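Revision sheet: structure tokens.
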Amino acid sequence: MTDILLLQPPVSFTNPLANSGRENYPIGLAYVTAVLKSKGFSVRTINNSDAAFSIKDLLDLIGSEKVKIVGFSTLLATIPATVRMARAIKERFGDKVHTILGNSYASIDPGVVERYPFFDVAIIGEAEDMISGHVQKVLAGEKIHGTVRAQAPDNLDSLPYPAYESVENTFFVKGSLMPIIGTRGCPFQCGYCARQALSKKVRSRSAANIVGEMKSRLQMTRNFYFQDDSATINRDHVISLCREIMREGLKVHFEMTTRLDLLDDEMVIALKRAGCQR
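Predicted:
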């Protein structure tokens, strides 16, 4: 029996050309999976971004494993397929299965539960600190419906490393870029970005914690991509991270995304020496 099924939906269940491949690592789901497993819940996590599992496949899985909760990690491009899946779940199982909508779409569209009642709950923000309590209430029989605002975790070092090894249907090419997050939050108000709907509060992991995660992945890869919203927003953090990588003698390569006005010569030199390629 599986308590919780976590899904990364595809863009389309019917058009394979619209979907991404299995090499797409869903870091958000991997974090939530790690948190729930650390609390003793039975979790199954599937990266279905390539639609390898049809709606029927997933419904059969939910029925055979007696899943009580299904969580979706949904972006703007994947909301149509997510709605189809949630509707199918409710049509077959009704209130026996609790459905949760998460990731950035829930945060940019707070009225989604009223418009699509196939979702019992939409979680706004970063879910790690509240998801275990929510799951416990649902499994105990409590009926919860509506939009829930999650408090973003302050201490990122307290979170377990993302449980990539638990994400099914993900094919990792040895040596390719593995996503990692060092800093969360962004104070800027770029109109094209959904991040401001999640959290503007900037929080950074310690350099030792980040390097510890890198070291734990070395059998799979030495190449990383920092999925931070603005990776160099905390200058002291970046310099500290570079020094820790060099102090540990890690031979890694990494990429990151940031703003030009958040860089300076000393930082760029330190990043280059630590292994940043672009």
